[in-house]
């Protein structure tokens, strides 16, 4: 049968458009495929002779013609590509134990068919081992042309390690949302297989796919472990393994039609050497069914099918085993992880430290290494606001190309981050590294707070009058508020200075309320004068104190400006916010907002008292006490929560330390009423009902803060707890 180039081009155009072929075109296309299969059989005999000549014994050779689905995809991917230009219609795969055998076979075939062109002629080669594809694929692809028919045969030569990688990609690609070979898969899957390719390249000593050329095995495996925790790829490969549906005896068979049906069952039909036409007919009929994945292959043993085409058995065990060989590598984070990750690698008994900078937190979920790690020993903190912004951005990026039914909510994205940080924390704890695990515990709680907030907001939007659901919503709200309070109070027991500052703030605020109360209820003019005369001893030295104080203030301000510039240069704070007059005004307005909200809460309680106090027979003393005590609690919480950095934290804290020091020296009994009782210095005003309630609330808050203080100190200590 004569096959013209124009007829093949027309058939290719119809396949590209998914148009049905006529009977004549179908017969012509089948004949053309069968012709390639026959040429491939002839090439197989030549290849076996070369392998015997080289003395290579451990190998697997498999042959197949390209599936209609693959032909259609290639024609659509390359619009100007004609059917007769596809080079791998006939494909042969040679799988060897090691790279040495692979190179020997490649060199022998290339050399022989460059000189001897009586049967086959060497055409060209794609060297994906020394120049890996962007997705990490590695193999030699040699193209040979049959002199008589001009049909092309592609021979792929790869190691078992390279073959296990390609098989795993084929299995994952069966997920409609993970088309890695087509370049449209999820980024976390693409990153995982690029890294695993880099790992195998490092093992075999070949060129590594960009941008991982400078990464050692330990570093590559560490990030593989992170990505696997994110996506559970190895678990999916392990669970996908299936057995074949045996319906006949495959002994002494040569041709096999292998197909994976919609129920993910592998079926194998075998044929003798004389039944090639029947095998082709069955293959062509099965290929028309789009719900199955079918291939016609030629092997000398049925047992080799699973090794040559493990993807048809969804068998990724070899890939999993090759990855898990490096499970004994341990990692210890040295620094906190935000925009930059600093890490220390410990491998067996030899310590090797890499302090590298990895830009962009999106490495956790998107393209892992967008920029090279070329800076050393850089540390930036991942605060709550930055993490919240990154989660929002990740959610937007994820949902860009997703259908509405597959889009992920902000709370679900936050949950994914939380699970990721939790797994890292558990790894560090398992490696007996609690200090570094503490940072990831903090990030985990950040994510939990964001998750609860977004989840609660979503449920409020879709409010239903279900008592159990409403109670659950209230429970989530309480947890969210508690997480927020402890974040502001002590950064989830990671910031000792922060919780200590809040302790001083609480004591100073309590002291101000006590003295304010006594000033309103008694004439303390004489006491005030007495306090002023405490400094009478220093009156004669006042000039010297003024000069020294002025010098300290000037040098202190200069030192503060110098430190601020240093911090600004280090962290590029000027890019985030300008420390200028506008910033100061905005910061002051944030403090006013906090004070307004602190005043608003007791006013609400007081109004409620005015409305219901008469019916409940509550006196004015109760309303007054309610106002004073709610003001105390709300003022403390709002000052802890305030967004005002300069006035709300620095100025207020400086003032708090001043008040605390004065009270500690002058009247230590004010720090807590119990101290006054022990020292027999109790004040008559402490018997007022309003102050009794204030003391109780103060004691509760003090207990919470002291508990956080000791827990923070214990968690940040190197002493085992």
Order the strands across the largest sheet as they lie in space: 3-4-5-2-1-9-7-8-6
| CATH hierarchy: architecture of the largest domain | 2-Layer Sandwich
CATH topology annotation of the largest domain: Beta Polymerase, domain 2
Mean pLDDT: 71
Structural classification: alpha+beta
Largest sheet, strands/sense/barrel:
9 strands, mixed
Name of the CATH first level of the largest domain: Alpha Beta
Overall shape: it is elongated
| DSSP E strands, number | 12
Total count of helical runs of at least 4 residues: 24
Residue share in β-strands: 5-15%
Distance between the termini: 84 Å
Helix content: 55-70%
CATH superfamily of the largest domain: Beta Polymerase, domain 2
Count of structural domains? 3
Walkthrough of the structure:
- With 721 residues, this protein is of the alpha+beta class.
- Helix content is 57%, strand content 10%.
- Helix 13 packs antiparallel against helix 14, helix 16 packs antiparallel against helix 21 (620-641) and helix 16 (496-521) packs across helix 22 (646-666).
- The protein has a 9-stranded mixed sheet.
- The longest helix has 32 residues, at 23-54.
- It has 24 helices and 12 strands.
- It folds into 3 domains: 5-185 and 232-322, Beta Polymerase, domain 2, CATH 3.30.460.10; 385-486; 496-715, no CATH class.
């Amino acid at each position: 049968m004569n096959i013209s180039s124009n007829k093949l081009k027309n058939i290719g155009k119809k396949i590209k458009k998914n148009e049905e072929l006529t009977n004549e075109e179908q017969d012509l296309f089948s004949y053309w495929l069968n012709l390639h299969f026959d040429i491939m059989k002839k090439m197989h005999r030549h290849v076996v002779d070369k392998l015997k000549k080289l003395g290579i014994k451990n190998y697997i050779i498999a042959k197949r013609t390209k599936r209609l689905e693959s032909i259609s995809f290639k024609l659509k991917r390359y619009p100007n590509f004609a059917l007769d230009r596809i080079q791998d219609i006939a494909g042969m795969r040679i799988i060897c134990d090691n790279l040495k055998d692979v190179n020997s076979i490649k060199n022998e075939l290339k050399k022989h068919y460059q000189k001897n062109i009586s049967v086959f002629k060497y055409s060209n080669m794609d060297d994906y081992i020394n120049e890996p594809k962007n997705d990490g694929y590695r193999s030699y692809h040699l193209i040979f042309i049959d002199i008589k028919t001009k049909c092309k045969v592609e021979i792929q030569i790869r190691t078992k390690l390279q073959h296990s990688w390609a098989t795993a990609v084929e299995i994952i690609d069966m997920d409609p949302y993970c088309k890695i070979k087509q370049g449209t898969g999820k980024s976390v899957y693409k990153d995982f297989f690029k890294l695993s390719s880099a790992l195998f390249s490092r093992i075999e000593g070949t060129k590594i796919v960009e941008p991982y050329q400078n990464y050692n095995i330990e570093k590559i495996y560490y990030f593989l472990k992170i990505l696997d925790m994110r996506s559970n790829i190895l678990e999916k490969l392990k669970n996908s393994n299936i057995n074949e549906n045996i319906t006949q005896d495959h002994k002494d068979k040569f041709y096999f039609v292998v197909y994976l049906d919609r129920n993910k069952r592998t079926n194998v039909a075998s044929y003798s050497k004389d039944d090639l036409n029947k095998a082709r007919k069955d293959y062509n009929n099965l290929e028309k069914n789009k719900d199955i994945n079918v291939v016609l292959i030629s092997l000398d043993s049925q047992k080799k099918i699973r090794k040559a085409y493990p993807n048809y058995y969804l068998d990724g065990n070899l890939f999993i085993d090759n990855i898990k060989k490096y499970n004994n590598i341990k990692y210890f984070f040295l620094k906190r992880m935000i925009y930059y990750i600093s890490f220390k690698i410990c491998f067996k008994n030899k310590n090797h430290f890499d302090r590298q900078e990895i830009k962009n937190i999106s490495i956790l979920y998107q393209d892992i290494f967008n920029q090279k790690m070329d800076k050393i020993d850089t540390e930036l903190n991942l605060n709550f606001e930055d993490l919240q912004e990154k989660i929002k951005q990740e959610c937007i990026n994820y949902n860009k190309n997703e259908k509405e039914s597959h889009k992920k909510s902000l709370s679900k994205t936050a949950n994914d981050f939380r699970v990721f940080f939790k797994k890292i924390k558990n790894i560090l704890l398992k490696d007996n590294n609690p200090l570094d695990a503490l940072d990831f515990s903090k990030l985990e709680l950040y994510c939990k707070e964001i998750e609860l907030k977004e989840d609660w907001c979503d449920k409020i939007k879709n409010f239903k009058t279900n008592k159990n659901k409403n109670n659950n919503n209230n429970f989530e709200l309480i947890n969210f508020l508690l997480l927020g309070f402890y974040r502001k109070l002590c950064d989830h027991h990671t910031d000792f200075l922060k919780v200590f500052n809040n302790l001083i703030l609480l004591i100073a605020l309590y002291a101000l309320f006590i003295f304010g109360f006594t000033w309103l209820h008694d004439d303390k003019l004489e006491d005030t004068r007495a306090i002023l005369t405490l400094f009478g001893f220093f009156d004669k030295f006042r000039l010297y104190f003024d000069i020294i104080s002025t010098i300290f203030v000037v040098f202190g301000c200069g030192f503060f400006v110098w430190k601020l510039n240093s911090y600004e240069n280090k962290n590029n704070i000027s890019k985030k916010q300008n420390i200028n007059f506008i910033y100061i005004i905005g910061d002051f307005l944030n403090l006013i907002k906090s004070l307004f909200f602190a005043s608003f809460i007791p006013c609400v309680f007081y109004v409620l008292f005015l409305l219901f106090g008469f019916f409940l027979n509550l006196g004015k003393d109760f309303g007054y006490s309610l106002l004073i005590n709610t003001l105390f609690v709300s003022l403390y919480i709002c000052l802890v929560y305030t967004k005002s950095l300069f006035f709300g934290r620095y100025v207020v804290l400086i003032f708090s330390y001043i008040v605390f020091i004065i009270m500690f020296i002058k009247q230590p009994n004010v720090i807590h009423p119990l101290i006054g009782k022990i020292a027999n210095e109790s004040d008559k005003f402490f018997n007022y009902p309003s102050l009794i309630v204030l003391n109780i609330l103060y004691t509760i808050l003090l207990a919470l803060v002291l508990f956080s203080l000791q827990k923070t100190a214990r968690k940040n200590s190197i002493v085992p707890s």
